[in-house]
Amino acid sequence: MHNAVYLGIAIVAEVVATSALKSSNGFTRLGPSILVVLGYGVAFFCLSFALRTIPTGIAYAIWSGAGIVLVSGVAWLLHGQRLDVPALVGIGLILAGVIVINTFSRSAAH
């Protein structure tokens, strides 16, 4: 499997885990708590494979940037989180940064 695919899986698993964290209610609800632990486990396992060829700083920038954007969307859909204009602009800038890294950075070449 290509290391970028591992990074994508790591991002999705982290988003699932982080989204379940709120529903775990401080790890007092079993189902969401198990999802948190499994999600983070899969995320770090797959991230470790991605780091074989993707530089750590680049992988982390993509992982955290995409994670912020996706978690914000999931929180809006599932938990009714509202984002004001400055938050949306900031998230847009994060997304733009991830796109710039993936499109133009020679450091991201893997």
UniProtKB/TrEMBL annotation:
Output a single Gene Ontology CC term carried by this record.
plasma membrane
InterPro entries given in the database record? EmrE-like, Small_drug/metabolite_transptr, Small_multidrug_res
| Location (main, coarse) | membrane
Quote the SUPFAM superfamilies the UniProt record gives. Answer: Multidrug resistance efflux transporter EmrE
Q: Which GO terms describe its biological process?
A: glycine betaine transport; xenobiotic detoxification by transmembrane export across the plasma membrane
Record's bilayer topology term? Multi-pass membrane protein
* Family recorded in the similarity comment: Belongs to the drug/metabolite transporter (DMT) superfamily. Small multidrug resistance (SMR) (TC 2.A.7.1) family.
Q: What is this protein called?
A: Multidrug transporter
Please tell me the species this chain comes from: Myxococcus virescens
